[in-house]
Amino acid sequence: MASTDVSAYKDTYGELHQPAVIIGGCFAIVAVVLSILLIFHHLRLYTNPAEQKWIVAIVFMVPVYATESIIALWNPQLSLVCDTLRNCYEAFALYTFGSYLVACLGGEKWVIELLENEKQKWLNQPWLEGSDENQGLRQRSFINFFCRPYVIGRDVFTIEKFGLVQYMILKTFCAFLAFLLELFSVYGDGEFKWNYGYPYITIVLNFSQMWALYCLVQFYSVMHERLKPIRPLAKFISFKAIVFATWWQGVGIALLCAFGVLPNEGKFQTGLQDFLICIKMAIAAVAHVFVFSAEPYHFIPASDQGRVTTKTTKAELNLKEDDEDNRVMLEKKETWVSSGTSVTESIQDIVLKGGQRNLETGCQGCCIDNKSSNRTC
């Protein structure tokens, strides 16, 4: 009976595999093309490096996910390798999103100052070293992070940054640990059995992921008024749909297979996961075009050496014939200003200089553009 079920599964998987690869490939191509075009647009209008270097990293997550998923769907033997690389970039992407929010607020220095101002506003009194109330707040700062995050000032940023970094480290470590355990056939991908490593890694990552998400939510709850110009809720939802929903989707498929709702044989679990990711990445790519649009950065920087071209034309006009005293000199000046940078310069800046080229220029330009996000220059 069991051999009959396995044979039926293999026949069904064989019939569905090729159509799934074709359909998933079409969605993956759409996702990659839209994301690359959006990245190219940001690189061409690279006028605010402090923010756009993080946007490029966030948007690039879609091509990474789509490419690795369609490769794993096409060749199940590469599934674990692709999943490991995908998890590593996911860890980096979460840290990138937090850094993007900080950049939109003007950098770490300004964020700490804003948080301290928020604390003073809610306490309605200066920080007194001997005050019993303030002493209690200092002793219970970690508890206040859950109840009243605004009263602990700069500690909100410290806890939020730690929450993102711990997930980045744990996610990367667990990805390589899973790969190592699979080499010794003790990982058991999707198997909720205590003699495999999968359930333990799942528990650790779930806790780490939920803590990182909660830190982001608390940081947003304190700074949401100042982040309104960049529509942070739409960006947060689109990002969460990729990172967190993908993880829970994999866990959900594993649970359905464990309870017998879905076939629990071969590479069906990973194949279904990769197929759904391909579809979801196409949707995410469309959402990113609107959520992480490059239009707010489409302005002329205040100063950009070598980008301003001026042509002056002079002509002499006689008002009356044979009358030298009525000659008028006309001067015509034409100026062309090309905004943005070359794509090559932008890529070199992101890779080699960390997005610091024309940082001062970009900051001056953003102050001119009233459509850009709220920041201090």
In short:
This protein has 377 residues and is mainly alpha-helical. The chain has helices spanning 2-44, 49-59, 61-74, 79-104, 108-123, 132-139, 141-147, 154-183, 198-227, 232-258, 268-291, 343-353, 359-368; strands at 308-318, 327-337.
How would you describe what is shown here?
The protein has 377 residues and is mainly alpha-helical. 68% of the residues lie in helices and 6% in strands. It contains 13 helices and 2 strands, in the order H-H-H-H-H-H-H-H-H-H-H-E-E-H-H. The protein has helices spanning 2-44, 49-59, 61-74, 79-104, 108-123, 132-139, 141-147, 154-183, 198-227, 232-258, 268-291, 343-353, 359-368; strands at 308-318, 327-337. The chain has a two-stranded antiparallel sheet with strand order 1-2. A hairpin with an 8-residue loop joins strand 1 and strand 2 (327-337).
- Biggest sheet overview: 2 strands, antiparallel
Shape: flat
Helix percent reads 55-70%
Which series of helices and strands comes N to C?
Answer: HHHHHHHHHHHEEHH
Percent of residues in beta strands? 5-15%
> Span from first to last CA?
72 Å
**Count of helices?**
13
| Strand order of the biggest β-sheet | 1-2
Overall mean pLDDT stands at 75
Task: Give me the secondary-structure category.
Answer: mainly alpha
Question: Which regions contain 5 or more consecutive residues with pLDDT less than 50?
Answer: 135-139, 302-306, 358-377
Number of strands: 2
The Cα radius of gyration reads 28 Å
